[in-house]
Each structure stands twice: as structure tokens, then as C-alpha cells.
Design brief:
binds uracil; about 10% strand; Uracil-DNA Glycosylase, subunit E; alpha/beta
Length: about 260
């Protein structure tokens, strides 16, 4: 033996390796198994075999799931539960509360805002922050009140998105698309005579268009009913000079109601 080992010494070394758990004879030249194509690579002695590839789950159509869930809701309580159970919108994970609605479902007017802000997320009701307080004053000016139960004074308020987007960012088109079946069902269940689309996101959802400063004040159709695009009260807080046009839009709504 050119290694200088005699037969007894080599046997002792081999036995010692077997004792340590070696199960394979070592070749003269080392094999770099990482260099081998995957199909030929074998796990190192004692190592676990690579797991078999997991078959991919079929892609989920989040809009279709929303449509089925919304259609299955026979009343507002069931709709809220269906939305709470809906798990395909990432916004849900960052939100504290599902913001479903406020006001009375007997209302002739349904206001659809954009998405909850910080106050709404905390309290679980739409339009309760500064913009909401301005909205209440605007509605009061034409005899509407979200706390009223009587059909003539009542107003029902919801949003396109029931969960607050992080840092109040604009919702993505996919997020709007997946919540749209719920909004449509919401409108069908409340069955108002008129819908107010409050702000750009609401127009994007209901009319497929943005550009509220052009759209506002012109009656259109959304969710199968007459719809009035209006500037958002948060915009009016920043741009008080736009209140004059908002007042004209409120009067247009009042005229339709009477
Ligand atoms: N803005 C909205 O559009 N909705 C709310 O609920 C609050 C602020």
C-alpha cells in the first residue's frame, strides 16, 4: 500500500468510518454533487431526499369569489358577514375594522364614498372624521340626516372599500374590482332611488371614469340607478372655494327628491 497503511490499519479505519455512519464507499476522485444535473444528483449520505414538487394550487379568481359571496347575501346582515369572511383583499390585513355602513336602509339616497380613513377604521363607521362632519352639515342643508329613520329624511352611507388602505393611499384597480360585486349587491339590497358618488374613487368604481371636477354635477347611471358625482368633502375642506359648486349639486339632488 503506497499510503503506508497496512491491511490491519486500513480495516480499522474503515470500521471506524462505518461506526461514524458512513454508508458509501469513497471513490478515488471526489464528486461535486452540486455540479450534477438535478436529475442525477443524489442526496449526500444521511441527508434527507429533496421533497417531491408540490402541485400548484389552481389560480383563484378573486372577483368571481366576491361575486358568488355577494350574490349569496340575502340581506344587509348577510352581506356584511360575507364581506367580513372575504379573504382575497390585502387591505383587510392592515385594517382594524370592517367599515360597512351608517344611516338607515329605508333611505332614498345612498352615498358611496371612497374608503375609510383613520377615524373610520378606528370606529368602524363611514365618514366620522372631519370630512364626515362636513358631509353631515351638507346633508342637513337639504334636509337629510343619517340618524333619521323616516324615508324622506334618511340617508344611507357606505364606501367602495370597507377597509382602510395603508397611509390612506389610493386603492389599486384590482382592489376596487374585487370589492365591486359587494358594492353592487349593497346598492341592490338598500334599493335607493338615487346614488351619490362621492369623489374620484367612487366615480372610478361606479362609472369607470375619474376626473371628478369634470364629472361632478352631471347625473349619470351607476349600479342601475340615477347617480350624481360630487366632489368629496375632504376636497372641500382643502379647497373651500369649491363649496359653491357642491352646493349646486346638493340642490340638484334635492330637486330630484322632491
Ligand atoms: N372618506 C371616505 O371616502 N369615506 C370615509 O368613510 C371617510 C373618508
Amino acid at each position: 500500500m503506497d499510503s503506508g497503511m497496512d491491511w490491519y490499519y486500513a480495516k480499522a479505519v474503515l470500521e471506524w468510518q462505518v461506526e461514524l455512519g458512513a454508508t458509501e464507499a469513497i471513490l478515488d476522485a471526489p464528486i461535486d454533487r452540486f455540479e450534477l444535473p438535478k436529475s442525477q444528483a443524489r442526496p449526500a449520505p444521511g441527508a434527507a431526499a429533496a421533497p417531491a414538487p408540490v402541485p400548484r394550487a389552481p389560480e383563484i379568481d378573486a372577483v368571481e369569489v366576491a361575486r358568488a359571496a355577494a350574490q349569496g347575501a340575502g340581506n344587509l346582515t348577510e352581506l356584511e358577514a360575507a364581506m367580513a369572511a372575504y379573504d382575497h383583499c390585502e387591505l383587510k390585513r392592515g385594517a382594524r375594522n370592517l367599515v360597512f355602513s351608517d344611516g338607515h336602509a329605508s333611505a332614498r339616497v345612498m352615498i358611496i364614498g371612497e374608503a375609510p380613513g383613520r377615524d373610520e377604521d378606528r370606529i368602524g363607521k363611514p365618514f366620522v372624521g372631519r370630512a364626515g362632519q362636513l358631509l353631515d352639515r351638507m346633508l342637513a342643508a337639504i334636509g337629510l340626516d343619517r340618524t333619521a329613520e323616516a324615508r324622506e329624511q334618511a340617508v344611507y352611507i357606505t364606501n367602495v372599500l370597507p377597509w382602510r388602505p395603508p397611509q390612506n393611499r389610493d386603492p389599486e384597480a384590482t382592489e376596487i374590482a374585487m370589492m365591486l360585486p359587494f358594492v353592487q349587491r349593497h346598492v341592490d339590497l338598500v334599493n335607493p332611488d338615487f346614488v351619490v358618488l362621492m369623489g374620484n374613487i367612487s366615480c372610478q368604481a361606479g362609472l369607470g371614469q375619474r376626473g371628478i371636477l369634470k364629472l361632478r354635477g352631471t347625473w349619470a347611471e351607476a349600479y342601475g340607478r340615477p347617480a350624481l358625482p360630487m366632489t368629496h368633502p375632504a376636497y372641500l375642506l382643502r379647497q373651500p372655494q369649491a363649496k359653491r359648486e357642491a352646493w349646486a349639486d346638493l340642490l340638484s339632488l334635492k330637486a330630484r327628491l322632491s
